[in-house]
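Propose amino acids for all 448 sites.
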């Protein structure tokens, strides 16, 4: 079998097993299996293993550190405190609560990451709608709205998403460059997505909410992932340590941009933030770091490592080189093509197979294109980011976050299916991505 055909077959089989997950296996297992096949077939070597290890290590340190900070906030009751504040601020209005849920989902992603927002935010929203005894359709509005906004909002802040971090390193884009190019089209896409979600769900939202919502105590909220429900007095929301932890997270988010500007390694900043919170919480006897460390998404790192090696096999077989030779003549000269073509490729792969391989294929393809100009490269890179973070939400398989959301809501007793998801996203995601790409096109006209 020819190398390119073997590489493509291994990639498709690996992607299928990741989506199918026979026997409930973790996504990391088929990814590592696919990487092993690529290695045994001679499509990747030790040099590729070393290169991918370096790419994943930097992204992993940022994601794991951010996960630690999220778990500390959860352990001290921050997210249950947020849920109480949302219920209070809604003032009995179902429509106002919907907008508050969407806004809080965006904030969780920007200050933590999208997987953390799904893992921690979804159970809290599920508890809210269960307590209010909402209908199936009304509950779906809050749950899916929070999911989509949490995932879509990971575009502007490069450190809010594992694949974004890897793409920046592969293409050679700094965090500040990423933010400066992505922020405008991403915000346009988010605003459009928000408006379309409200237009889609407004008829299902309750006019008035149950009066019981505002009377909850901490013990009535779902426990932290892997933890036990806390007594209200054990770690009451509003303690000084909770506000200290919030301050650390805000400083870390500002610090990553400052580190990027001055040329320091970005992963050091969240690592120091996580270490500060774990040590401070342990010294104050507020939390046990050894119960938090195992809850971090360690297997996600192995998934990323295996999947990246599989995609490197595609590169070594010449598939991404072929795509690069196809893109090169037009990307550097036509702003519309630079804005749309890489995004279309990435969105297609992401919706069918998953945005992690979609993002990495798009990034490697761009990295192999020479002499198209820095501005054209950044425009094309931004299109890849928007397509993988926003466009991939069209299908549940498009992102690990959406698959995780579907699994989480079913665990909480909400039986929603792919058809329920796609009925909404078909009317929301394509137009949102189109508006975002139009914003990118305007940038391309100016800089190219």
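Proposal:
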């Amino acid at each position: 079998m020819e190398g390119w055909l073997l590489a493509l077959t291994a990639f498709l089989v690996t992607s299928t097993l990741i989506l199918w997950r026979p026997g409930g296996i973790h996504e990391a297992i088929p990814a590592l299996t696919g990487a092993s096949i690529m290695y045994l077939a001679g499509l990747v070597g030790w040099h590729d293993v070393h290169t991918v290890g370096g790419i994943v290590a930097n992204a992993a340190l940022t994601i794991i550190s951010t996960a630690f900070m999220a778990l500390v906030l959860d352990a001290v009751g921050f997210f249950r405190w947020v849920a109480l504040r949302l219920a209070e601020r809604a003032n009995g209005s179902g429509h106002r609560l919907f907008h508050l849920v969407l806004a809080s989902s965006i904030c969780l992603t920007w200050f933590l990451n999208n997987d953390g927002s799904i893992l921690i935010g979804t159970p809290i929203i599920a508890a809210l709608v269960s307590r209010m005894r909402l209908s199936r359709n009304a509950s779906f509005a809050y749950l899916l709205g929070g999911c989509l906004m949490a995932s879509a909002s990971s575009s502007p802040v490069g450190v809010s998403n594992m694949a974004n971090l890897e793409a920046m390193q592969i293409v050679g884009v700094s965090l500040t460059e990423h933010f400066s190019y992505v922020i405008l089209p991403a915000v346009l896409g988010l605003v459009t997505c928000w408006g379309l979600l409200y237009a889609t769900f407004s008829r299902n939202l309750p006019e008035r909410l149950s009066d019981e919502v505002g009377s909850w105590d901490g013990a009535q909220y779902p426990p932290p992932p892997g933890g036990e429900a806390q007594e209200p007095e054990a770690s009451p929301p509003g303690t000084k340590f909770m506000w200290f932890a919030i301050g650390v997270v805000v400083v870390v988010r500002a610090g990553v941009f400052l580190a990027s500007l001055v040329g320091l390694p970005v992963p050091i900043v969240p690592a120091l933030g996580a270490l500060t919170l774990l040590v401070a919480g342990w010294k104050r006897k507020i939390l046990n770091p050894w119960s938090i460390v195992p809850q971090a998404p360690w297997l996600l790192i192995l998934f990323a490592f295996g999947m990246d090696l599989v995609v490197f096999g595609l590169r070594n077989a010449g598939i991404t080189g072929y795509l690069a030779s196809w893109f090169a003549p037009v990307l550097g000269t036509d702003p519309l093509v630079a804005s749309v073509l890489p995004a279309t490729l990435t969105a297609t792969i992401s919706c069918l197979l998953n945005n992690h391989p979609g993002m990495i294929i798009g990034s490697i393809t761009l990295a192999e294109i020479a002499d198209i100009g820095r501005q054209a490269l950044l425009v094309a890179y931004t299109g890849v980011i928007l397509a993988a973070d926003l466009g991939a939400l069209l299908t549940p398989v498009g992102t690990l976050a959406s698959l995780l959301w579907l699994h989480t809501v079913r665990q909480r007793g909400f039986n929603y299916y792919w058809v329920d998801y796609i009925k909404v996203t078909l009317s929301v995601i394509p137009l949102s991505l189109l508006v975002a790409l139009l914003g990118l096109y305007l940038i391309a006209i100016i800089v190219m």
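Confidence is low (pLDDT under 50) at residues 214-238. Residues 45-447 form one domain.
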